[in-house]
């Protein structure tokens, strides 16, 4: 579904990505793990068209999307839930969800999207008229995910969904990520909580300073002594 080939990205003099290769097959959950500054978020932002590639190629369903602008990428079926949630704080929960469907003109599709978000996240239904800024961190994460799902994406890019959440909520969010995947949405997941990421993913890539240093089956990586020591605190 998604193929990233020899991707390089520079932030002025800093080489954020150095010839990264990775791929996501339809129906998978693929995790990107690594320390802060390893280049995980940069990969997602470059796939989304937010950050330009210095070199390399990104293909989605066989089409080169390396130079495609972000709003067109969303229309093609790729949507990103950004790090730090980035909800529209002065809008209500319902208005945030409606903003997620900006590229859809079909009213029924919008209504179906809202109902889907409310069935996945019942707490959002209870708070639909509340301003987003009054929600807890966990609720804002649910809203950010619900907003992204309004476009009915084929590929969902999730950036640090567990950041700043209480352990109980982290488990709930990952449970919902699994449910979203089971309904047919392919997922690429960037996550500091390597233990949770590897427990839910099919495959994973380990990044260090802009390069892929390990890749493979998520369960095998979780059992790898190097990974356990560096990322699982064992």
Structure description:
The protein is an alpha/beta fold. 38% of the residues lie in helices and 26% in strands. It contains 10 helices and 10 strands. Strand 1 and strand 2 form a beta hairpin. The longest helix is centred in the last third of the chain and has 16 residues. The protein is globular and about 45 Å long. The model has no long low-confidence stretch (mean pLDDT 90).
Spatial strand order of the main sheet: 6-7-8-3-9-10
Question: What is the residue-mean pLDDT, rounded to a whole number?
Answer: 90
| Biggest sheet layout | 6 strands, mixed
CATH architecture of the largest domain: 3-Layer(aba) Sandwich
Stretches where pLDDT falls below 50 for ≥5 residues? none
Question: Percent helix among the residues?
Answer: 25-40%
CATH class of the largest domain: Alpha Beta
Number of domains: 2
- First CA to last CA: what distance? 34 Å
What is the CATH third-level topology name of the largest domain? Rossmann fold
What's this, in brief?
The protein is α/β, with parallel strands linked by helices.
Task: Describe the secondary-structure layout.
Elements: E1 2-11, E2 14-24, E3 29-34, H1 40-47, E4 55-60, E5 63-64, H2 70-75, E6 78-81, H3 93-100, H4 107-120, H5 122-126, H6 137-149, E7 155-159, H7 167-182, E8 186-190, H8 194-200, E9 203-208, E10 211-217, H9 218-223, H10 225-231
Parallel strand pairs: 3-8, 3-9, 6-7, 7-8
Antiparallel strand pairs: 1-2, 1-4, 4-5, 9-10
Helix pairs in contact: 3-6, 4-6
């Amino acid at each position: 579904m998604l193929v990233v080939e020899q991707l390089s990205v520079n932030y002025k003099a800093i080489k954020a990505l150095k010839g990264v290769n990775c791929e996501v097959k339809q129906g998978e959950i693929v995790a990107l793990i690594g320390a802060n500054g390893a280049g995980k978020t940069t990969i997602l932002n470059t796939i989304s068209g937010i950050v330009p590639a210095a070199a390399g190629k990104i293909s989605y369903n066989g089409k080169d999307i390396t130079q495609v602008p972000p709003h067109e990428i969303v229309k093609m079926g790729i949507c990103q839930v950004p790090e730090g949630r980035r909800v529209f704080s002065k809008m209500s929960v319902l208005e945030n969800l409606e903003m997620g469907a900006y590229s859809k003109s079909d009213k029924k599709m919008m209504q179906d999207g809202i109902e889907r978000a409310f069935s996945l996240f019942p707490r959002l239904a209870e708070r639909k008229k509340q301003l987003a800024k009054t929600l807890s961190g966990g609720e804002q994460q649910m809203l950010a995910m619900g907003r992204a799902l309004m476009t009915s994406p084929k590929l969902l890019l999730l950036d640090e969904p567990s950041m700043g959440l209480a352990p109980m909520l982290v488990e709930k969010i990952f449970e919902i990520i699994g449910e979203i995947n089971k309904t047919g949405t392919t997922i690429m997941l960037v996550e500091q909580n390597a233990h949770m990421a590897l427990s839910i993913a099919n495959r994973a890539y380990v990044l260090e300073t802009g390069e892929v240093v390990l890749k493979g089956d998520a369960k095998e990586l979780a059992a790898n002594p190097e990974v356990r020591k560096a990322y699982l605190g064992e």
